[in-house]
């Protein structure tokens, strides 16, 4: 019954003090708007970074390793015998029956699987020698698991099979050793093998580590260089949904027994820095909303001070203290709500304006716009926090003002 | 047998501070229903303090205020507010109208706070009150568009809105010219004649003389009681028969 009365008094106060109300709303709108922009920007850049990360690497990598060293037969037989530095008799390089495993994985995996041989090599050209990782790949299957095909700046993946001992090298390595497409280089393998190879293509992935330290060849060449014929020591999986990689990796590891690493696990250090970054961003956004609510605090303080006669008369007429207090909290809520609405619009406009800014991206080598992530959660959360801040900001000055005994004011006025 | 509207027993109001002093010092008083009581006294005598205690705006240090048979010393702040809302009407020297609201809305305020009538009834009553006080044409105006006398009459209408038993007025004519003073006092007189109790603090001796009873306060005590108006005859008659 009296809520109507309180609302109409609050509404009248707010609408007859346009300037103050606008300042209060502006404060809230700024806080909410900038918070939304910050959230969109931070999350956008994070998602963009993750997407590029996910794009450039396999989602799950299966290596010919075990998580832990298997028990030695001697350990099982003689528990009391202490042994050290015993050669692992089970250790044989390579994944056993890779074709069978791949066929089995393909039957349930939501994605593609490709085999590869990973070994180290030394590229020798024009007197310069650089140690690299050589990936022996199957060009037909590689298309399904990596972006290598789209990263080629000279030649094509299929050119690997066109030349004898063809290799594809990164742009950075090519520049370092002054290698041109079609040149012949000397590859040195771990077993002392030396093979003369022809550069049939140059790629640019954007990751310096890869561009300078990774080269590709057919599986056969890598096997020869390793001195292990027929070996496959890595399976790479690309999933349709990268977010299930962790689950898939666990499943693959349980099925095959080989160490399967998801992209999340491989980049866990990076992902943990995101958690820190998120925390920092949340702190800053909270501080922004809190600061903006100080505008409300100030205005409600001013209004309650100016309205102390009204407060006194309302109390003396018999209105309860908390009813009078509610008037000012309602006023703050009105200012807050309208401020939040404007803040949402401001936030959207800021996000849009920021998305027009372009920066050079070394990963793609192109100038791309800032990535903004639009999420209703940003709007809901900033609004909810803001309205809460407003209510609290109004509560204290309102309580202080309405606590004053009406007699004190009435005596002072007459 | 006349009905007692307001009674105070052993009323004391002390203020504790750097220097403690007594504003109201042991007052006993009964006010009959329909009586017009004027409280006079020099500045700082405690007349306003007594009025605030009578209107439950302030709580006594000792003693009891009984309004329409209801003892109030043990009531909570909220209960006291409710008694003020329904049983007391206030008029102050300064009109204290809400500046953003029209005369009509100001008169509606206590009724809406009490919430005992429908919107239509409230509107009708507010219009009736304003019209009876000669403000029928001014209902849509805000306080700053009204003259001092008109504002005070709006404040009177507001005080009367919830049909209170007691009207408590603190120097209601203090800021008014002679004509408006005369008018406001006339209205208060009519209210008392209509059966509501009126207690007025004033320093205007001529006006006080027109009340049924005048009590003169000095240093928080009743110094002198004078009967006038209708009561003078009654008291005289009573003394005569005795």
Task: Please characterize this protein's 3D structure.
The complex is a heterodimer of chains A (414) and B (242). In chain A, 57% of the residues lie in helices and 18% in strands. By secondary structure, chain A is α+β, with helices and mostly antiparallel strands. Chain A has 2 domains: 2-54 and 270-413, no CATH class; 66-71 and 92-258, no CATH class. In chain A, the strands form 2 sheets. Chain A has a 6-stranded mixed beta barrel. In chain A, a hairpin with a 2-residue loop joins strand 2 and strand 3 (128-137). Chain A is elongated, with a radius of gyration of 34 Å. The mean pLDDT of chain A is 87. With 242 residues, chain B is α/β, with parallel strands linked by helices. Chain B has one domain (4-241): P-loop containing nucleotide triphosphate hydrolases (Rossmann fold). Helices cover 38% and strands 26% of the residues of chain B. Chain B contains 8 helices and 10 strands. Chain B has a 6-stranded mixed sheet. In chain B, strands 2-1-4-5 form a 4-stranded antiparallel sheet, with helices on one face. In chain B, helix 3 (103-114) packs across helix 4 (119-132), helix 3 packs parallel to helix 5 and helix 5 runs parallel beside helix 6. Chain B is globular. Chain A binds chain B through residues 1-2, 4-5, 9, 12-13, 16, 309-310, 312-321, 323, 405-407, 410-411, 413-414, and chain B through 48, 52, 55, 57-58, 77-78, 81-86, 88, 90, 92-94, 96-101, 109-110, 112-115, 158, 170-171, 174.
